[in-house]
Automatic annotation (TrEMBL):
Residues 338-412 form the DUF3752 domain. This is DUF3752 domain-containing protein. It comes from the Eukaryota. Residues 209-247, 355-383 are annotated as: Disordered. Residues 371-383 have a biased composition (Basic and acidic residues).
């Protein structure tokens, strides 16, 4: 038990030292000292150069720690503002873009304070401000091209921050700082709040507490491969539906089919109506069917219909009468009487319109055709032209008076000899 307690104390002390920046690897390197080649080189150089070398190493460690302190201070500063929770993820994307060798512009950030802080941070990292050219197509495509001007696209110059292009040592140092901040953004996004030179040992991961997340969780960072795929799947889908007839299925069925307060009230109302129907002399089945949503008796039982009774109830058979009348062109409704003064005014307007308009083509054609027929008839008046409509019964008409004189009393004599209704 004593050894276990001592081991726990050692682990706690190690985690606390990791929290303040004193890692186990740094302690081991300090105890072991520099390698033999480094020792030989150190002894070979002057004491002033030795102090300069140790000073550069110490300055590199301090600068890395300062960068982590700065980035976490920036996160804490804007944590309470709208959109502050997504700041680690967004800055992680920015640093990832810069690490890939591209430039990032800060002109589109609406928060002026955040933009100024990021500019100061980029300057502290050693990033260089360069020009970013964004090509935009010309909108005046329909205008004519003016002589002396080229049809080149309009270029807008935007300033952005990127890695330096000069010395390789400076480039590698700046890139290392950017990757350090990218790692801190990932840790802050995952919930870790340590600002020290944290290693990937399991003791530190157990000691560091996760930060509670308020609201919906942010999606995984694109560069972070450690994603939890189990959150996207449902355990109920993995298990599947319960087999029919099993105890679990019966429990779920009773759980889902438990009557609610509305169902209980509906059942009580149905029972009350059934009792009232039975008290009135009925059997209560129709009420139960109506309340339960079923069909009543008049819907199920077919009715009786007698064809002859239906005919007699309608007044008996009547012969149909047909009228051989043409109703084409008749108005469906009678015209309302119009004021004579208004009618005369309408007719005058119609006549003036017809006179001003002149005859239509059809009217002109009919007039010319009638005039041609009349001229042809007058030109050939001496010649006899037979017309069926005009000359078929011409000269064959019999005068009724002359017919009665000729027949005399033949009609009375015929009636005496022949019997009939004619």
């Amino acid at each position: 038990k004593r050894s276990d307690a001592e081991l726990v104390l050692v682990k706690i002390a190690r985690a606390l030292l990791d929290g303040v920046g004193v890692t186990a690897e740094a302690v081991e390197q300090f105890e072991q000292g520099p390698p033999m080649e480094t020792q030989v080189n150190v002894h070979a150089v002057s004491p002033q150069h030795e102090d300069l070398v140790h000073g550069d190493e110490k300055q590199g460690v301090d600068s890395t720690r300062d960068l982590r302190v700065l980035i976490h201070a920036l996160f804490d500063k804007f944590c309470g503002k709208p959109g502050g929770e997504s700041l680690p993820s967004e800055l992680g994307g920015v640093f990832d873009t810069i690490a890939q060798g591209e430039s990032v512009a800060l002109d589109g950030i609406p928060d002026e304070e955040l933009r100024i802080d990021l500019e100061n941070l980029f300057v502290h990292l050693g990033l260089v401000k360069t020009e970013i050219e964004e090509e935009e197509e010309s909108e005046d495509d329909d205008e004519e091209v003016v002589e002396g001007k080229n049809d080149e696209t309009n270029c807008e110059v935007t300033m952005g921050y990127g890695l330096p292009d000069g010395d390789k040592t400076e480039l590698s140092s700046t890139e290392k700082k950017v990757l350090t901040l990218l790692e801190e953004c990932k840790r802050r996004k995952s919930g870790e709040t340590s600002v020290s030179n944290v290693s990937n040992n399991p003791l530190h991961k157990e000691a560091v507490k996760k930060r509670p997340v308020q609201g919906p969780a942010i999606g995984p960072f694109p560069g972070d491969m450690a994603t939890n795929h189990s959150l996207a799947e449902s355990s109920s889908e993995d298990e599947g539906p319960a087999p029919v007839g099993s105890d679990f299925a019966k429990k779920m069925r009773h759980k889902h089919l438990a009557p609610s307060n509305e169902d209980i009230q509906a059942m009580a109302e149905q029972r009350r109506l059934q009792l009232a129907d039975v008290a009135a002399g009925g059997d209560g089945t129709e009420i139960a069917a109506a309340v339960a949503g079923g069909r009543e008796e008049w819907m199920v039982t077919p009715g009786e219909h007698d064809f002859l009774k239906g005919i007699k109830s309608g007044g008996g058979l009547k012969s149909r009468q047909f009228k051989n009348e043409k109703t084409r062109g008749d108005r469906a409704f009678a015209e309302a009487p119009m004021n004579p003064k208004m009618r005369a005014e309408i007719e005058a307007i119609s006549q003036a319109h017809a006179e001003a308009r002149g005859p239509s083509l059809m009217e002109e054609h009919r007039r010319k055709k009638a005039e041609a027929k009349e001229a042809e008839r007058m030109a050939g008046a001496k010649e006899w032209k037979w017309s069926r409509d005009k000359h078929l019964d011409e000269g064959r008409r019999v005068d009724k008076k002359a017919l009665n004189m000729i027949m005399g009393g033949a009609s009375s004599l015929l009636k005496e000899k022949f019997h009939g209704s004619f």
